[in-house]
Write a structure and sequence with these properties.
This protein has 2 domains: about 170 residues, Rossmann fold (3-Layer(aba) Sandwich), CATH 3.40.50; about 120 residues, Rossmann fold. It is built from 13 helices and 11 strands. A 5-stranded parallel sheet has the order 8-7-9-10-11, with helices on both faces. It has a 4-stranded parallel sheet with strand order 3-4-5-6. The chain is globular. α11 packs parallel to α12. The protein is an alpha/beta fold and about 350 residues long.
């Protein structure tokens, strides 16, 4: 994922680099301006803004609220804290606006790993060129897909693009996906057997993230952390009722309200310190699981329910995924049982990645 105002997208990049480093590799993230950050004004107003405007209008018809940045300047200012995290913790290239194999060779890259997050869901970037590695042409470089997400339970590409993708996917030596439902989608549409693996953030343990946010003081006031991507009255009522039941306050954060002081470290500390989490976010749910918090997750159809279905199956916490507020906070989650399930898939996922890289690099 582009490293911009996206907590989960940035942390999955960092996490995957950490896993690769522990395997003995030297990862570097090829950085290209396909969203807002680092983008020229011309690109923004001619390509991104029209797409955002269409999404805004569509969202109005289906209800809810969708706010969008109107200029590059304020957006870039708001993500300064995240940029600092990238600069300090993630090994990246300079921006590569015309990404090509010349760039790959210049950085001495021996293998290309695409993933993770919603990179196989066509939204605002050229998936053919970037995330199916179309720019590599006929090169014999090792290609691996680790946990890319389609996010949806239906194939999002038309037949013309799908034909291109079928040819590109043949050049990958290993293909895995983040959602269980995507295994069949990839098989039916691209003719490839993919393995279901964990999002990179889930390959690390709670202690790894506690170390990242160790300099953020622990909250002295108990709170419910409401990390809501698309706020509705029902979600707000759920957060307020949960806080009332627990006798504490609500601490709200929404992805479209990020300020420069809303750093990744502080975001992680919110999960670390929260008494309860209410969210409609995939990675909000992931970090609730990692930090072993009591939580409820609202399905978010607009952003893709297949992601939540996979987390529900991985964790076994069917009653924690909801479509409307619940009256009771329910039973306390038994995290010993959840962690046992996660560990089995964590081991399988790491072994898959290690095996995919071992064939050529070792």
């Amino acid at each position: 994922m582009p490293l911009c105002a996206n907590y989960g997208g940035t942390l999955q990049n960092w996490a995957l680099q950490q896993v690769l480093i522990r395997m003995g590799h030297e990862p570097i993230t090829l950085r290209f301006p396909v969203m807002y950050q680092g983008m020229s004004s011309w690109h923004y107003w001619t390509k991104v803004f029209p797409m955002q405007a269409l999404r805004f209008v569509a969202h109005k018809f289906i209800g809810g609220k969708y706010e969008m940045p109107l200029t590059i300047g304020p957006w870039k200012e708001s993500v300064r804290g995240m940029e600092r995290f990238v600069d300090e913790h993630i090994n990246v290239t300079e921006y590569l606006p015309n990404l090509s194999m010349d760039d790959v060779r210049r950085y001495g890259v021996e293998a290309l790993v695409v993933g993770s997050d919603q990179i196989w869901r066509p939204v605002m970037y050229d998936a053919v060129k970037y995330y199916f590695l179309g720019f590599t042409g006929d090169s014999d470089i090792l290609r691996i897909a680790y946990a890319p997400s389609v996010a949806l339970d239906k194939w999002p590409y038309n037949e013309e693009v799908t034909v291109q993708l079928r040819e590109l996917i043949k050049k990958f030596s290993a293909v895995s996906v983040r959602e269980e439902s995507s295994v069949q989608l990839v098989k039916d549409n691209l003719g490839v057997d993919a393995q279901w693996v964990l999002d990179p953030t889930m390959l690390l343990k709670k202690e790894d993230y506690i170390d990242v946010c160790k300099d953020v003081p622990e909250s002295k006031e108990p709170f419910v952390f409401a990390y809501i991507l698309d706020m509705t009255g029902e979600k707000r009522r759920m957060a307020e009722q949960t806080a009332k039941t627990l006798g504490c306050i609500v601490r709200y954060l929404s992805a479209d309200k990020v300020k420069k002081e809303d750093t990744i470290e502080k975001w992680l500390a919110n999960f670390r310190d929260a008494k309860y989490v209410i969210t409609d976010s995939y990675h909000g749910t992931v970090f609730s699981l990692i930090f072993q918090k009591q939580f409820y997750t609202f399905y978010n159809t607009y952003r893709g329910n297949a992601r939540m279905d996979s987390l529900k199956k991985i964790s076994g916490l069917e009653d924690r995924f909801i479509t409307e507020p619940v009256e009771s906070l329910g039973r306390e989650i038994d995290y010993a049982n959840v962690e046992e399930k996660l560990e089995k898939m964590r081991v399988r996922s790491v072994e898959y990645l290690a095996s995919a890289l071992k064939e050529k690099l070792n």
